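Tokens for chain A. Residues wanted.
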């Protein structure tokens, strides 16, 4: 399966929207799903992963967590934005 297909980008919607997206990916046969977020959405991404793991998914584990800093152009020049990627994986594979 294509890696890009199994990525949930977290933004400003309610956390449960993203949880549903993650659970749906696994229910559709995905072996792993990446949850990505930048800046203020990082805490929402962490909440998404924890709620999905603790309440909805069985046999799924946190495979890896990567953090990084991205430099983006804004009206006032360049600025650093933190980003996170949480990869959840099926233990049955």
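Reply:
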């Amino acid at each position: 399966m294509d890696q890009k297909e199994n990525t949930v980008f977290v933004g400003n919607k309610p956390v449960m929207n993203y949880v549903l997206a993650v659970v749906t990916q696994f229910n559709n046969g995905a072996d792993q799903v990446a949850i990505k977020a930048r800046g203020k959405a990082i805490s929402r991404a962490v909440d998404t992963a924890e709620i999905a793991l603790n309440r909805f998914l069985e046999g799924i584990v946190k495979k890896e967590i990567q953090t990084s800093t991205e430099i983006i152009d804004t009206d006032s020049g360049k600025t650093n934005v933190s980003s996170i990627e949480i990869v959840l994986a099926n233990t049955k594979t």
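The two ends are 14 Å apart (CA to CA). The chain has one domain: 4-90.
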